[in-house]
Each structure stands twice: as structure tokens, then as C-alpha cells.
Design goal:
The chain is of the alpha/beta class. The chain is about 20% helix and about 15% strand. Bound molecules: zinc ion.
Length: about 250
């Protein structure tokens, strides 16, 4: 949940300049069954070489607390880490994400849903986060406020303390490549995107921002997220892999 989320006084972000769109069809489609048995939810193949677990695979009956908004203009992709446990089994991943959801929708954060659009675990598996993100785009939230214009991916683990697995980096790159196709984002880090911030504690509302197509949370807010062992990989290693995957599936 981003180590930055340990900061006190983080306020609920506002959705300035946003186009409010409801996602009723998506919400209806994701309604869980009324069974007491654990629900087995298979991942969805979104492209050759990439499957994503839909939200109900971790959420079960946990719904978004309030209606979500669409992100009207996706210009770049923003990588976070959870700053939580890195040593979890495959079977524990859903509960790890559920705990993040409970923190994000609790009194400290009071967001309507988990703030990230997607998660990637240490096994390289991708998971839908915020409701509707597989169909997307859905506006996200972030500690420190959100400048907007991004879809958010959270790596499950603390990458100030540990190194990401090769599988996680591969999974991240494929997810980024697919999102690059989906939102027509050129994954060339030399070609910055520009936008006017909706307001974060690094880029106040109205500030003109230049961002790499794949950025880290620390580029947008005052935080160390996504950790010193991941952030340098966003300069070249991850974007190169993501661009290669994007070209493969485009
Ligand atoms: Zn973060």
C-alpha cells in the first residue's frame, strides 16, 4: 500500500476535472455468486501471453464502496509497490490483495475501492484491482493525491527491502505492454507525455507535468514508492520488455 501511505494526514483525493461516468454494466457483470464455498475464478486471457485474474478472484463479495469514475484521458502508466509482505504463497495472493482493499476503503484512506487498477505478484501473475479496470479505463487514487491521466499497477511486495523476482518483472512488462496497446500509449521513454496536473503533493493542481510513458509513483508524488530496487528498472529494462511485448501483440 505504498510505504508513502504510512504518512499521516493524507487526505482523500478529489477528482478535479474528471468526467463522471458510471460503470453499471461492469458492476453487474462482476456480481459474485451466493455460495458459501470458495469461488474458483479463472484468469482471463486478454492477449496471447497474458492472462489477468478478474477482480472477483480476490474480492469475492467485497464490492466498491461507492461508484467509480472513468479516467477520461490515459496518457501514461504508473508503477507502485505495496510496501507490504514479499514472501507470500500463490494461495495467499487473494488475501494479500483483500487486506490492501480493506486498508484503502477503511477510515484512514476512505477510498471507494483499492486505489490501483492492477496488481502483479511475485509469481508474475496479473490481477485486476479497482472495479472495472479490465474493461477500463477507471480513475485511480493515490497517496499524496493523484495528478491523474494514468492507470496504476502495484507490485505486491516491499522493493526497498527485497528484489523483485524475474517473473514479477516479466509479468509487469507484459501488463504494461498490453495497457500500451489498449490505451494507445507509445512506450518510448524518450518521448515524454505532458498534461496539466489535477493535484498531487508534488505537482499541484494546474501544474504542467512532463512524464515518461512508464513512470514510478515517486515521479508524481513525494514518496519513495515503488522502492529503490524497482525504480531504476523503470528507466530501461521494464520499458524495453514492455515495448517488445506490445509490438508482439499489437
Ligand atoms: Zn505508490
Amino acid at each position: 500500500m505504498c510505504e508513502c501511505e504510512l504518512q499521516r494526514g493524507a487526505s482523500r483525493r478529489t477528482f478535479l476535472g474528471a468526467v463522471a461516468l458510471s460503470l453499471p454494466a461492469l458492476l453487474v457483470a462482476r456480481r459474485p455468486t451466493k455460495t458459501s464455498a470458495p469461488q474458483v475464478v479463472e484468469p482471463v486471457e486478454v492477449s496471447p501471453g497474458l492472462t489477468i485474474y478478474p477482480r472477483e478472484a480476490w474480492a469475492g463479495k467485497l464490492r466498491a464502496r461507492r461508484p467509480l469514475q472513468a479516467e477520461p484521458d490515459v496518457k501514461f502508466l504508473l508503477v507502485h509497490h505495496s510496501a507490504g509482505t514479499t514472501m507470500y504463497s500463490r494461495a495467499q495472493v487473494p488475501s494479500v490483495i483483500r487486506n490492501i482493499f480493506l486498508f484503502h476503503t477503511g477510515t484512514r484512506k476512505a477510498w471507494p475501492d483499492t486505489c490501483y487498477n492492477f496488481f502483479v505478484d511475485r509469481y508474475g501473475q496479473a490481477w485486476e484491482g479497482r472495479t472495472g479496470s479490465l474493461a477500463g479505463p477507471v480513475m485511480a487514487d493515490a497517496t499524496g493525491g493523484s495528478q491523474g491521466f494514468a492507470q496504476l499497477i502495484c507490485l505486491l511486495g516491499d522493493f526497498d527491502k527485497t528484489e523483485p523476482t524475474p517473473e514479477m518483472i516479466e509479468g509487469l512488462a507484459r501488463l504494461l505492454g498490453w495497457l500500451g496497446v489498449k490505451y494507445n500509449i507509445e512506450l518510448d521513454q524518450k518521448k515524454a507525455v505532458t498534461f496539466v496536473s489535477r493535484g498531487s503533493n508534488k505537482w499541484k493542481k494546474g501544474a504542467r507535468v512532463k512524464a515518461r510513458p512508464i513512470s514510478g509513483h515517486r515521479d508524481m508524488s513525494q514518496t519513495a514508492c515503488p522502492g529503490k530496487n524497482v525504480y531504476p528498472l523503470l528507466a530501461r529494462t521494464v520499458p524495453k520488455k514492455a515495448a517488445d511485448f506490445k509490438n508482439l501483440i499489437a
